[in-house]
Amino acid sequence: MTLGCRVTGKVNITPCSGVGKGMLTIKDIKQAEKNGITETALRSRIYHGWSKEKALTSPMRKTLDKYYEIAEKNGISKQLVRTRIYQHGWPLEKAITRPKQKTKIYSEEHEKAVKNGLNITYQNFVNRIKKGWTIEEASTTPRGLTPENKDRVLEYRKYKNIALSNGISANTYSARIRSYGWDPERAATEPINEQYKEK
């Protein structure tokens, strides 16, 4: 099956390839065959939008079988080999020998942050870095906070506990700050006027 295309001295594969995909020649087909690629596979690749160079040089899946063992010795899975060749157009030798990129580039920093008490997943830690946070900010800012509001919120929480230990309710503490503009320290330490104590 040749997808409706005829082979001549110079093979115009239109309409199989669509406009702008170029011409296949007998030389191209012979080159592909030398590379272990059948004419049908070559035409199918062009039909599906592959560049001529990629279509002529990317090995067929069956041909790859003998190279998987080499790839696996290099810590590269079969799926990654196929992805590199068929999706990214890598040459075979590069696809089976290039070491995998270290994916968890901030793994040490994340582990250190977790050991220091930060409750955060690795992906959320990386997302903080992508947003422009420094390593220190990503490692020390509690979940739900940002570098901009961290100090203010932590101060609020700190004095809230002090307020409770001084017999000042959370509602009173909050109202003193939000309604009356008191600073957290004053809101947490100034005794309640007897006539306004909650009953």
Summed up, the domain count is 4
* Main beta-sheet strand count, sense and barrel state: 2 strands, antiparallel
> Count of helical segments?
12
| Residue windows where pLDDT falls under 50 for at least 5 positions | 1-21
Q: Helix amount, in percent?
A: 40-55%
Share in β-strands: under 5%
Strand order, sheet with most strands: 1-2
Radius of gyration over C-alpha positions, nearest whole angstrom: 33 Å
The run of helices and strands is EEHHHHHHHHHHHH
Q: Can you walk through the features of this model?
A:
The protein is mainly alpha-helical and 199 residues long. It has 4 domains: 1-57, no CATH class; 60-100, no CATH class; 107-140, no CATH class; 150-196. It is built from 12 helices and 2 strands; from the N terminus they run ββαααααααααααα. A two-stranded antiparallel ribbon has the order 1-2. The longest helix is centred in the C-terminal third of the chain and has 16 residues, at 150-165. The chain is rod-shaped.
Task: Write a short abstract of this structure.
The chain is mostly helical. 54% of the residues lie in helices and 2% in strands. The chain folds into 4 domains: 1-57, no CATH class; 60-100, no CATH class; 107-140, no CATH class; 150-196.
